[in-house]
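Fold these two proteins, one after the other.
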Amino acid sequence: MTVQTPCQSSTLDDWLCYLEGVHPSTIEMGLERVKRVAEQTQLLDTSSKIILIGGTNGKGTTARCLESLLLAQGYSVGTYASPHLIRYNERVRIDGQELDDQDHIDAFHMLEQGRGATQLTYFEYGTLGALAIFKRYAVDYVLLEVGLGGRFDATNIVTPYASVITTIDLDHKEYLGDTRELVGYDKAGIFRANTPAVVGDLNIPHTVTDYGTEIDADLVLANKDFSHMLSDNGFKWQYLDYDYEFATPAIPMQNVSTALTLLAKLNLLPTQDVISQCLSDLTVEGRFQQLSESPRVYTDVAHNPESARYLRQKIAQLRTQGFKIHALIAMLADKDKASVIKEVSDVVDIWSCASLQGPRAEQAENLQTMIRLQTKAPCAIHSSVQTALDDILAKQPNDTALVIFGSFFTVADAIQYWQK
């Protein structure tokens, strides 16, 4: 069947449907095709300084922290993130603001005219579209979140001003490998010779430092060159002559520490007062986001073991406040579901499982089976996140906090439920 190509007067939804079906694969690793189109459309000829942000978890919060601190100093900033929660427009921000549909439509139309016979995946279209928008707006800095891995991700066609790896853990094992060393090596592919490369992971695999040393990257390493630690008033960050203390932020301190170190390395760090103000205002959607005070409800995108460990810490804090924990989990089938459940099982009193929609969705019954292998806590099943919330909220006691997690899709369903 021939798919009709949208035009500049088509809707963004028309374009997104087209992009989802124009390439036979959802993911196709490699840079040759996407770089060819970028060169044909002159997207790599830019005056913006590009910061590549890779990592298993923490890319979004690190990018949001960098964005806030750069904007506070008067720089213009373009930020590219994926996936989105509710609307595609969330993926591209200029100076912290989402753009009109037409900005994306114009970018996609330009790419469609310029790609020739080269096929692109949905993510590759999105990446090149973001680069086109950033070039059009001529921003000072571009914060480019790596999608999958690093070495062969579409974002890695650029020449970065600096590179960041937030954390390294097991995810996307079918593409990146089943050890932290293999995952780390792939992520280190975003490093460049004689270019700052900040690594925020607290237990850095040797493959990361080996590759960085091999290509003469300007490595700056957590727990060697910089550090953070809890203090009486929040947390302390230390790098070179910087020894600052801040109130505990709403995002992981590890990501804040990584962002501050990068800016210090680039001589872009604002004053301590400015940093404190930015951190006090900083929240990121879907990262232990509170949806309701009464009843107490939170949602989090945790979907791999590392992010589940961080979620466990947040849940444990709720328990110290006297709350029982009701966990509503919905996940994709290709994730390490058993490990995610194991990380939080000892701090959850009641479980509910929901099925997601789509070809990658895991069924609630399978999640229930995994939970029953690890805990004797009661566990119910539901056909969707919405039906689960209808049931749970109708009888949730005041002494119980509901935590909804497992996927970006799960969080999107929860947020949309509240918006209605």
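Now the second one:
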Amino acid sequence: MSHIKPSQSSSLDDWLCYLEQLHPANIEMGLERVAQVANNIHLLDTPSKIILIGGTNGKGTTARCMEAMLLSQGYSVGTYASPHLIRYNERVRINGQELADQDHVDAFYQLEQGRGETQLTYFEYGTLGALALFKRYEVDYVLLEVGLGGRYDATNIVTPYASIITTIDLDHKEYLGDTRELVGYDKAGIFRTNIPAIVGDLNIPHTVIDYGDEINADMILSKRDFVFTPLDNGLRWQYQEYDMTLTQPSIPAQNVATALTALARLELLPEQEKIPELLDNLQVEGRFQKLSDSPLVYTDVAHNPESARYLRTKLLDLKNQGFKINVLVAMLADKDKAAVIDELSDVVDQWACASLSGPRAESADNMRAVLGQVKQHDVAAYESVHLALDTLLPEQEANSALIVFGSFFTVADAIQYWKK
């Protein structure tokens, strides 16, 4: 790779390669460097109302739900998410659409002109690039997904119109701590005084509430201020004057309830009769996404214990329909693989594992060793997701379902396999 600085006429791929080399670390917590560059080019001086969305899981589905509700009312909406599955362009959407490569190149060029000698990580560069694009297109609302934690994440340089925490669980323990209280405290760092702070977690750590009280955030808490009740074929959502029974959405009901509550608090909820249709049409890539009917194949980005618990409910639904559950798992080395596998071990009939590629990838042999520790036997191991699917798909029986999961990288490999 070349360290030559790209120009405004360079390709997006050239820019992304350059950004990967700018900083010696993938992650460097802290806001000073990012805020300095943002102020250099006046990124924070924007008329857009920015909603910060943090949480261990559920950020993407909550954002997509809110995006659909806002777009249905004619608002312009910018959405920032990471990581992407196939293309970098997936990270930034305006009015539900990805942008052209040149838009991203222009934003990166603007940042490069304004950052001076300040070093930025790949994620920080991407976050500032997204803010530059949202300012350029003058969107009404920005849905800004927090990358890691909250307090020291690059997204937290903004002044939010509202802050949301979807769920709180253990992940990135080396940065956020090894208890839910520590993780919750870090995530609560996106709260602001007198600004709505909506928390969807069903067992909120006291540190979240304590910090919100300390700074006098306008907290709206699940189970205290709003309630969602799972039903056999849907959910019931209650908040203030709202009491709605909705059919089962394609995304977790908990995230739907959190999104609806946030919009209701901000007086941005669509007319109630429109909400069921909007939810029915909601699809989020990589979240228990069906790739094939015959054989029946799903893919899911679940990569920590909490997301594995939700995946387990979907597998139980299939099991109750009479399907045998076969799983292909591929994960990153820094994830709690044993805990994830343990959440699913009693509903999976046959396991297989595959290696991922990249510096953080876990090998299939190590995955097989972890599976052996939770008493899974006869586990086939493959050098890649593609090679595994070449072998496994012809073996699938009519009464079986194959689930490919474990990482955004795993889902991307599975989707690319199908596209080819």
